[in-house]
Amino acid sequence: MSNSPILFEHHQSAHCENGVISNLFRFNGLPISEPMAFGIGSGLFFTHLPFLKVNGIPGTSYRIWPGMIFKRVSKRLGVDMFSETFRNPQKAKDALDSALDKGIPVGLVTSVFYLPYLPAVFRFHFNAHNIVVYGREGDNYLVSDPVMGAVSTIHKDDLMRARYAKGVPEPNGKMYYPIHIPQNIDFKKAIIKGISKTAYDMTEIPIPIFGTKAIRYLAKKLKNYPEDLGDRKAILYLGNLIRMQEEIGTGGAGFRFVYAAFLQEAGKLINQEWLIEQSMALTKTGDLWRDFAFKAGRICKNRSNDGTSYKELSEILIECSYQEDKIFGELYKQIKKI
Amino acid sequence: MKKNEVPQDGDNLVKGESNWVNYAVDQNGEYVQEISVGWEPENIALEQAWEVVNEKVKEAQAKALNGQLSPIAYYMELNIMDLPLLANYMNKYQWQVRRHLQPDIFKELSEKILNKYAFVFKITREQLMNIPSIQQTK
User: Measured between alpha carbons, how far is A205 from A228 in angstroms, rounded to an integer?
Assistant: First the structure.
């Protein structure tokens, strides 16, 4: 049985992985904002994988794959993490209970489908959702889910399902928490590494399905969606893009605003005015992404081209890619000189 | 996006009950968090996604009530699962689960397998054997 309740401070964030890092690290004595976690973790990305279909729709992502932000933030800040998966669900429960009894709030990877406290319309089979469990009351666990405004509770049976959901990827009961936070942290170094990696990812990978090249690749395909797929399927593909870009957890514009917030914060922290300028540039690009989503939404609503053509949508994407080429190109070039 | 531009399109499937964090700039150009209850394109895309699901559920329900498919077909769609995912949950091969979609095969399934389906679908055995009529699910 737990002794005294864990006094866990719940802060809402835009994105689950960033939010869990921020909340768990803060609990352990290292306050770090969501944008800072996202930036140091090099979370921003863009991929379009036409061959990797989920429900028959090509995969598009505006961020790096799940778990990477955590890995990178821990490594770059020198934080030692406990992290384990369990083949046996009972062992996973025991490990969770044991940590809670020791006063340790725990990060868990879960499936959104089995979290009843989330609004039902958002509960698809998405298995990379991060939450913190910080207590237990009878058969219920106390949950700090960063995307929610307040804390929630979940029954142990539902939590078991959420931790052992099937699909790609499988959470396998993954749980994690910081075990040691160093006294002196070189934030400047971490920020430089974080920016450098993101800038590289967006502009330097010589494969057209990653970074700004992928945005142009998508733009090229999107232009011909109605001819290649027929109106109905074209609209489904568009809808999926909008959801990847705007649905819970991106803070708007496919993480571009969160990243701009990071550049602003980082620029102030390490006294680099030019980062703040890049932040403003990226904010403008974020607005363009949202313009894309807005116009794409109109096409979906009207079930067919309505004023805005797929060609126009394609051109907005291309413009986004050029703007990001400029911003991340500049970041890549200048960050080395600090 | 400016703070006062953060959308509040709450006329959506969630009836404005979702409060998600957005990042926007205030009048001084400083990034702040701002809550949004919804945005039109997102609302449209989400509604569209659920329309696709609901169509599949209705079709499976009709076929199951009709005796063309077993109740498993209905509950599979209701849980937004496809055959590979359901097979994964059941720890069976896809061809096995596909067979279970046939009503005459379903009739012969063991207690063990039926109980497992009921568990996967989070329903009772009673519900598994008696799917609701179209009227009941309106």
Answer: 28
Whether the ipTM is more than 0.85: the answer is: yes
For the domain spanning A16-180, the CATH number is 3.90.70.10
CA atoms of A276 and A279, how far apart (whole Å)? 5
Q: Does B52 touch chain A (CB under 8 A)?
A: yes
How many domains does chain B divide into? 2
Q: Do A147 and B23 touch (CB under 8 A)?
A: no
What is the Rg, in whole angstroms, of the alpha carbon atoms belonging to chain B?
21
**Distances A158 to A47, A76, A163, B79, B88 between C-alpha atoms, Å:** 33, 35, 9, 15, 18
Q: Do A300 and B88 touch (CB under 8 A)?
A: no
pTM for this entry: 0.93
Residues of B in contact with A279 (CB under 8 A): 31
Q: Which residue of A has its CA nearest to B13?
A: A121
What architecture does CATH give domain A187-335?
Answer: Up-down Bundle (1.20)
Mean pLDDT (chain B, rounded): 92
Give CA–CA dist A335/B1, Å, rounded. Answer: 26
Please report how many Cα atoms fall inside a 13 Å half-sphere around the Cα of residue A20, on the Cβ side. 28
